[in-house]
Amino acid sequence: MRRLEVAPLTRVEGHGRVELEVIEDRLAAARVLINESPRLFEGMVLGRDAAEIPSLVCRICAICSTVHRLAACQALEQALGVIIPPRAALIRELALLGGHIESHALHLYCLVYPDLVDADSVLQPLQQGDPLAKDGLALKAFGNRLQTVAGGRRIHPINLEIGGVLHAPADDELAALQDELEGWLKRIEPLIEPFFREDAWPDAGPVAGLRIAVDGNGEFTLTGDNLVCSDSSMVNASGYRDLLQETALPDTNAKQSRKGGTSLLTGALARCEFASPGDKTTPFPPGIHANNAAQGLELVWSLERAHDICRQLRAETGDLCSPFRAGPGSGTCVIEAPRGILVHHYELDDMGRVGAADIITPTAINSTAMEEQLLADLADETDEPTMRQTAARIIRAYDPCISCSVHVLRVDRP
Amino acid sequence: MIRTRIAYIRLTSCSGCQLTLLNCEEELARVGELFEPVRFEMLSSAADDGGPLAAVLVEGSAARPEEVQRLLDLRRRSRWLVAIGACALSGGVNRLVDDRQGEHCAAVYAGVCTGRNMFPPQSIDHFVAVDLCIPGCPPEPQEILGALLALQRGTLPGFLREHAVCMECRQRENLCLLLERKLPCLGPVTRGGCNARCPSIGIVCEGCRGYADQPAREEQAHLLRDLGLSERQVRERMGRFTGGNHETP
Amino acid sequence: MSASLVPIPATLVRILPEDPENRLFELQTTTPFHVGPGQFVELTVPGSGEFPVSTAGETATGFATCIRQSGRVTAAMFQLDEGMIVGLRGPFGNGFDLTRFAGRDVLLIAGGLGIAPLRGLLHALLEERERYGRIVLLYGARQPENILFREEFEELAANGTVELRFSVDFAPQLGEGDGYICSVGLVTELLQGLQLAPDATTAAVCGPPSLYGCVLEQLASTGIDPDRIFATLERRMKCGTGQCCHCVCAGVTICRDGPVFCLTELRSMPGAI
Amino acid sequence: MDGFVVKADFLPRLLQQLQENYQVVGPVRGEDDVCRLQPLDEWSEHQEFSLPRISVKKYLFPPNELLYTTKNGTFEPPPPPEQMAVVGVPSCDLYAVDFLDRVFADDPLYQRRRSNLLLVGITCHPSEDCFCPPRDTPPPFDLFLDEERVFSGTPRGDELLQQLGDRLIGEVEIDHDWTCEAQGPPLPENLERRWAANETKSFWEEIGGRCLGCGACSAVCPTCHCFDMQDRIDAAGNAVRHRIWDNCFFPNFALVAGGHDFHPTRGARFRFRCEHKLLGFGVFRGESSCVGCGRCRAACPVQIDILEALDHLREGAIP
């Protein structure tokens, strides 16, 4: 037996590596390992006032900071019985969409696109004046602008607190965003086209894992009350544990999610399959690489939705934040991070302080599927360099966020 | 033109400081012209050639021997070492687990995590000499870019100041949240350079850039208590980014 | 003097290492630029910053300054090569008034890098050597190898132009060539045994704050008129024009009203030394 | 100086006239109830002449001002600023401009801005924080509006009045009382001697013990003019320098190479600021530059009051 290493995984978020066990030139086992220190956010929040939590937990991950912060707000609002004003909900969703656009653009144009043009990084195509790299980054910048206007900052937004939001974008800011959104909607198609090209990807087999997503009743959504699974089951957020059966792996700082022994897939591809949009004439590329195309499709939907929200917000004048009183309760939020389902669950004691917290991140959910996918797609591969390269591209296709999945993947054994 | 060789690594943190550079979308092409990212895993697949570096940028706190090893190796290879962000500078939010690390580890991993091979997260100046500090959680893009441009010219940058957020907030003629809204703003003791981003949209400063030079911590704590915060709340609020909640101001 | 905050370009025509920490930079400008002894200029390393530095004397084509690598900007200055361009503002401040020295014995007391402005003064005095009586230079440095401009001074002493005495804080052993090193200890010890005519002597002192603390009043106690005991002060002089307020001490703008003050003035400036 | 009674619509007409040649700014009260100087597009009936958070100083001595850009080994100053007219400047802020004019008398960049700035003063409506010193000479202005009268102070002002001749009714004597109705206590006599006698630390250190060192007082002061300079490389690769507002409350303000700090405590820094405001530095020694606008009192988060320092000096013994 030989052990091949793809280390470090590059152009992904966080430190990880892949170990491939090869027996007689055939891949026998695949493991995704992480190189991160546990950061113990679920412990850190214990004993703290609910109000402190959103700004702490958004520091789990920079790329998903908006969605982490929002998940905490929503779970804690549920625990405290707070109903937020409709205007605040719109501003929050705008921030969420901004994060979605930024993250997808980062993944597609900075992390994946270099593979399509055979470069080490996006810097090479950029310097050569490649219009796709340039426009892709401009789209990423625009996602950041949405996050800034609605969330107050690109990374670790400040505007989202328990009860609603603290600040409303000015009308002229919203009007400017509307104009820009219209511009983007006109030019988005050629920008996502390369990710649909079939010849751009390595050969790949069927995608592993039961699909799960936040239920949008057939529509594109990032928020909702229920989780839906491709085996036709549906659970309410509070029953997330039934769907995501997490176990701690012995002797490691790792947890894994499965459903009745079957791996799960979450993310853009899963969402697209549930959303069944009217127009899906363009076929997706093969296998898991379809996730990239699905992200492209979501960019379009996100821009459309953001445009709609800007319009609605300009007509809104209501309150921004509902008052709340500290007290006991428990709440769960399921929400779609750019790379899949994120769950935040908190239990508050009589003083309104956190007594228990549980955070499940999408990359943790996908980890088993990733390993299965590596095994399946590389089954016939015998050339080692190709094996390494393809393995890296398969992992990249999931758009993993290793730093925020820190407590749920296997770390290096000591 | 010979590009300046740099590395940008991350230890225990959220990737926000690296993302801050990638968020300089308009300037990235220029960055690519001037710099060769010898090691910057989030951005580039190029394999580290192990050669000398002009500067290594470090995000995150050190929490494992392996991270210290990586720091020491890059320090040896580099003319300058730049600590970026609250985690690298003070330990940041990572420090909030500090003395309860083992306890939390057990809670989060249902007793299976032993906390082995890790130690309470530390600022990186515990292990290596730091030439330049760029604060913030997250840091300001213009501070990172400006610092890079200076380093590329062979000098440490001189524009990073350590005065309080209040100065910039006053220059922007904002409503004073502390004085006029009676909100617990940390502007008077927090290091500026963010152009008072949060107070300018009516949100109190939460201190993400760490303390200003010679902060009036006791006076600030007194103010917060006057606004109705409990002793514990004052400690938690002021300690969020400045090395944990152990120190009473 | 120009009060403009926009520098003019100056070329580094020569860079001479003086000792391990100090270098002499000779600058040249396209238009004549005269810096009097005791005055200072603001030097800009483009992109890095600006710092005040006194003149260490004029050269054939401009003037020289002696710079110690002590911070960020001076470190950047030390990266520059001959022929490169720096920015120059000034000259600033009131330097030494040579009429106060004319017809009198001159006592120069320097500690460490304080020798640089006094070298500028010495050069000015030597321009018209005949106008002055004795010129005595007392100079304290940390170690023998830290004595700046040593050869130049020893040559002047050898031909009788000046009387010279060095002191050093540390010296393992004084050897043959150390003839002018008279003591191991404080520069003030060099004063002992000097046959001074206090009422005919003008003194100029430059060095670290600790030097002023002990030497100025000691000179006054020997009988030298406090109006004829001069010291040059060091502060964080940023603008050079009395506008930025960084160097203000006791209401006095050091950059504009100084940096050279007589002891009588200094006595009325609490906190100045 | 000429004075005229004006017709009711003089102000809007003046604004129209100014907009032909100047960028016009004036005090505007925002949604957050804060008054700031900002560009004026049109004359509002509800235009309120209250004291802006920061005076006209921000246009003459901007918080962050480009000093030069390097180009091929030379240091190029920025292009000259645009012509600007500031409408509705209260007299305390005009006196502050007079002080700054003298501080920066030799500074070409300041003078370039100043000569491009037209000032339209206005009788102020004092707030509870004001404490203006007595005045017997007028401050600098191009035009000054005193309720239904207008005065011209410069040839530029004369020219404007000529252009607006049809809005003027009749010439009047100028009998304006330049001392504001919110008159503060006069400076104590023998201030310099009192100052020297009051070097005793206890009072200043007691205040320093409350002070946050945030610098808000200096930031809002219309005569504070401490500055620092910052160098950087711009995106195009040129070295640039900016002049930025500094603040004597910052710990490194009086730090010298070698690490000695001449103002080591917040008490010492507060004393330094009071000395600057009340006694003056350098050629301005003996002249108070405090115009009594009261901004520093209003801005201090811990209610430190320069009048407290003045009282302390007044009550202290003179040797």
Describe the overall structure.
- The complex is a heterotetramer of chains A (414), B (249), C (273) and D (319).
- Chain A has 414 residues and is of the alpha+beta class.
- Chain A is 42% helix and 19% strand.
- Chain A has one domain: Orthogonal Bundle (Cytochrome-c3 Hydrogenase, chain B).
- In chain A, strand 2 and strand 3 form a beta hairpin.
- The longest helix of chain A has 31 residues, at 86-116.
- Chain A starts with a strand and ends with a strand.
- The model of chain A is unreliable at 408-414 (pLDDT under 50).
- By secondary structure, chain B is α/β, with parallel strands linked by helices.
- Helix content of chain B is 33%, strand content 12%.
- Chain B has ten helices and five strands; from the N terminus they run E-H-H-E-E-H-E-H-H-E-H-H-H-H-H.
- The N and C termini of chain B lie far apart (51 Å).
- The model of chain B has no long low-confidence stretch (mean pLDDT 90).
- Chain C folds into two domains: 8-92, Elongation Factor Tu (Ef-tu), domain 3 (Beta Barrel), CATH 2.40.30.10; 98-267, 3-Layer(aba) Sandwich (Rossmann fold).
- In chain C, 19% of the residues lie in helices and 31% in strands.
- In chain C, the strands form three sheets. In chain C, strands 10-9-8-7-11-12-15 form a seven-stranded mixed sheet, sandwiched between helices. In chain C, strands 4-3-6-1-2-5 form a six-stranded antiparallel sheet.
- Chain C is globular and about 50 Å long.
- The relative contact order of chain C is 0.15.
- Chain D is of the alpha+beta class and 319 residues long.
- Chain D has two domains: 3-56 and 74-171, no CATH class; 191-315, no CATH class.
- Chain D is built from eleven helices and twelve strands.
- In chain D, helix 7 (201-208) packs across helix 9.
- The radius of gyration of chain D is 21 Å and the shape is globular.
- Chains in contact: A-B, B-C, B-D, C-D.
